[in-house]
Write a structure and sequence with these properties.
The chain has 811 residues and is an alpha+beta fold. The chain binds zinc ion.
């Protein structure tokens, strides 16, 4: 699973406390951080779905379950089944009972140990939108055809289907959905039939013939176009809305190559009969349903590829990796969830490394590193614990570290052992350690203990002293991370090792060549002496291969940092050097080093980071380099250059920014240019914001920048322009509500009108914005004022319901 990155513009506008949803019994049972006991082994389920009703978000279903008793004299079977599903019959059975989110089937006669048991549950489901299933009517909104899909995630499937919800009991299944003939049905495994049904319907049956966990059961029905591809003879299919057909192949076309790369690296060929990727509306991001991944419908257009869209860079290779890590071998319980998510987040970096080389690989993990530091700063948790907050980025980083320490060949041999030993089964964190031990002879208990079962990472503080007589460099290395001394509010206390064990290399540059020493740091404080240097140091790279996840404080002379930035092949030490140099705005040598990197570093990320750092330097030194960077072939470099020019200022900066706003080929660069233009306060800034409000771009990058600026500096014309684009996406309504909450009466009037808009999606966005951006009292006032003038029955109902929610906030 992967959630979409936050939309920054929204984050800038919205201050909303996330609602504290009460944890239901279902979540506790299914999402427990341990492997709960049950009395049977699921073998197979046949799932029939029919009478899908988009108005009442309801359906009828029949599920035939085959299981094997694992208890002598088993007299009843307990399945997970959401309380809103209404059972009609269970046959054959003596009786059945409902307790919360469970179904208890009392068997006609007790089953012996190993006996096969079969029964069929017939039921009606009327469920709230998004609780297991998502329904979308065709209400005329562009790019939003009628559809229904399962959005279970790891705990949602029992909300629409009686089954065992935990991941540790795998089964096969068959899914038959009867829907209007114009809707294509995609599900797991192999499509076995598509037959006409009465009333303009058809019944499509898919069969998942190899066992998988039930949280991976899925289907999606929509007027899809299918774009067909192949990998080693297996069907590879991209299901998109018909209007998106031309966008499918540029986006998904790398999939067979990714499948080939993953098969080669792991030594385990793609394990399922086909691979489908299905795009749907308002999805959380992606979900690795077995052989039929569900993805959000944000297909990039041709321009968007200049900005390296997250969808292709991360989302597609992440969900594909899950087909091995999560679907073929599944975490036994959610306390081991990092095995699924860490591996899935790790693999895209391996793909990009295999395609484009070491810098592309390091670039990928550099982004994971930044994410991890942010998460860890909020709450420090280990990887292998229930509800760990860092399973994605820390999981990816720890696996990359493991690969660096073992070497690529032993690492992949270990992964191969892990995948083949637990194929179509489950695994725990220690099973992975065991696979490494068996494949390489390395007992990495220490690595597991500090990186997987403990929290935190080493925070090094290093000082250096050079003895020119002895030609020796002494580094004093301290680890400064602190242990959390007390339990946090959840009652857990996660230990942080006071001394991490860190096998690293130290490179010392001299005029007569580099000296590399391998050392193992394993104490809170220790001194390392590097003797017999051929000359005085010109550079020190601490952890030369970036073999350890860490932060580093190491005060170095500017020339050392400049050499590190200019010559080190690895992106992490370069990024670190940029950060150190950025703090020396008064030092011309620091400016010169950053300027050289911004102009001509051999990888775009370094150029972009240097261009960003130059924002804090005087124009005289920064401008010439930023002018070059603003013409870089990489949009990411131009974006940083333009943003920095907005901070450095001056007539020539304004001219470049203006040119980028008018003519750059990248949406992200134009968005950055608009922000820079507004910051520089050119006479045309306001006209540019107005123009930006109506400009179409991928994920609304330009429009979002314009909206944010309009909220920061509103005037009647900008407020009116926000009102004009209220139907394009949800952010304009949120912006108007943010303005209304600050007393802007024009914005408030426009919102009132929006509550009665003829377009249902606009009414929904406006209502959401009012509830989220305004305090309850002014929100209530606005809604009550609007109420008498509402001309539409649906609008009156929705507003009355919202008033009800605001009058009686959930306790
Ligand atoms: Zn995932």
């Amino acid at each position: 699973m992967r959630s979409t990155p936050l939309r920054l513009a929204v984050a800038a506008l919205t201050v909303v406390a996330s609602p504290l949803a009460g944890q239901t019994n279902l979540e506790r049972v299914v999402n427990g951080g341990y492997t709960p006991s049950h009395d049977y082994d699921l073998i197979h389920q046949r799932i029939e779905v029919r009478n899908v009703d988009w108005d009442s978000t309801s359906f009828d279903a029949r599920v035939a379950t085959t299981l094997v008793s694992l208890r002598p004299a088993l007299d009843s079977v307990v399945l997970d089944m959401g309380r809103s599903l209404r059972v009609r019959t269970v046959t054959p059975a003596r009786s059945y009972a409902r307790f919360g989110d469970t179904l208890v089937v009392r068997l006609s006669r007790p089953a012996g140990f190993g006996d096969t048991v079969r029964f069929t549950v017939d039921y009606h489901g009327a469920i709230r939108q998004g609780e297991g299933l998502y329904f979308f009517k065709d209400d005329g909104r562009p790019h939003r055809p009628q559809q229904v899909y399962t959005g279970g995630g790891t705990d949602g499937n029992p909300r629409w289907l009686p089954t065992w919800g935990g991941p540790a009991d795998k089964e096969t299944w068959e899914l038959a959905a009867t829907v209007p003939a114009r809707l294509t049905v995609v599900s797991n495994g192999r499509r076995v039939s598509d037959r006409p049904a009465p009333g303009g319907m058809h019944t499509v049956t898919w069969r998942q013939e190899k066992p998988a966990s039930t949280y991976l059961i899925s289907f999606a029905a929509a007027p899809f176009a299918k774009v067909a591809d192949r990998w080693r003879g297996a069907p590879v299919e991209y299901y998109v809305y018909r209007g998106d057909s031309a966008l499918a192949r540029p986006l998904f076309g790398a999939t067979p190559d990714m499948m080939e790369t993953y098969s080669r690296l792991t030594g385990v060929p793609y394990p399922w009969s086909k691979y489908a990727q299905v795009t749907v509306a308002d999805f959380i991001g992606g979900m690795e349903n077995v052989s039929a991944t569900t993805l959000v419908d944000w297909l990039p257009d041709a321009r968007a590829y200049r900005d390296r869209p997250w969808y292709r860079q991360s989302l597609i290779p992440h969900e594909l990796a899950h087909q091995w890590f999560g679907d073929l071998v599944t975490a036994e319980d959610w306390g081991n969830y990092w095995l699924n998510e860490g591996m899935a987040e790790f693999m895209p970096g391996q793909y990009w490394g295999a395609k484009h080389g070491a810098h592309a690989e390091q670039d990928y993990y550099q982004a994971e590193y930044q994410q991890f530091l942010g998460i860890d700063a909020r709450r420090r948790m280990p990887l292998a614990t229930y509800s760990s907050n860092n399973v994605y980025p820390k999981g990816a980083l720890v696996l990359e570290m493991l690969k660096t320490q073992l070497g690529a060949q032993p690492f992949w041999a270990s992964i191969h052992r892990y995948l083949t030993r637990h194929a179509y089964g489950n695994a725990t964190t220690d099973d992975l350690r065991q696979a490494v031990l068996d494949a390489t002879g390395q007992n990495l208990g220490w690595f597991w203990s500090q990186w997987i079962y403990s929290a935190g990472y080493p925070q090094f503080v290093v000082t250096s002293a050079y003895d020119s007589a002895a030609r020796s460099l002494t580094l004093t290395v301290r680890q400064t991370q602190v242990d959390t001394a007390t339990a946090d509010s959840s009652g857990f206390r996660f230990a942080v090792p006071l001394a991490f064990r860190a096998p690293i290399a130290i490179r010392v540059g001299t005029a007569a060549g580099d000296v590399v020493r391998r050392v193992t740091i394993d104490r809170r404080e220790q001194a390392l002496r590097i003797d017999s240097l051929p000359g005085s140091p010109t550079m020190v790279a601490f952890d030369d291969e970036n073999a350890v996840v860490k932060t580093l404080e190491f005060e170095q002379p500017t020339p050392w940092l400049a050499t590190l930035l200019a010559t080190h092949p690895h992106l992490w030490p370069r990024a670190w050097a940029v950060e150190q140099l950025a703090r020396r705005a008064a030092d011309p040598a620091a400016a010169a080093a950053l300027a050289a990197a911004a102009r001509s570093a051999d990888y775009f990320l370094t150029r972009a980071q240097a261009a960003e750092a130059l924002a804090g330097f005087p124009g005289g030194v920064a401008l010439p380099a930023l002018e070059v960077a603003a013409r870089d072939t990489s949009a990411q470099v131009r974006e940083e250059a333009v943003a920095s020019l907005g901070r450095v200022g001056g007539e020539s900066a304004l001219a470049i920014v203006r040119q980028a706003w008018r003519a750059d080929s990248s949406d992200q660069v134009r968005a950055a240019a608009l922000v820079a233009l507004a910051r520089l306060g050119g006479p045309d800034a306001r006209a540019a914001i107005l123009e930006g409000l109506t400009m179409l771009s991928y994920r609304d990058a330009i429009q979002n920048a314009a909206i944010t600026l309009a909220v920061q500096r509103p005037d009647p014309e900008l407020v009116s322009a926000l009102g004009q684009v209220i139907g394009v996406q949800s952010l304009p309504a949120a912006a108007l509500a943010a303005l209304a909450s600050r007393g802007d009466t024009a914005a408030r009037t426009r919102l009132r009108g929006g509550l009665d808009d003829e377009r249902p999606w606009v009414r929904e966005w406006v209502l959401d914005a009012v509830e989220e951006q305004l305090d309850p009292k002014p929100a209530l006032e606005l809604l009550r004022e609007a109420q008498p003038a509402l001309t539409r029955a649906e609008a009156r109902t929705a507003v009355a319901q919202a008033i009800g929610r605001l009058e009686r906030p959930p306790s």
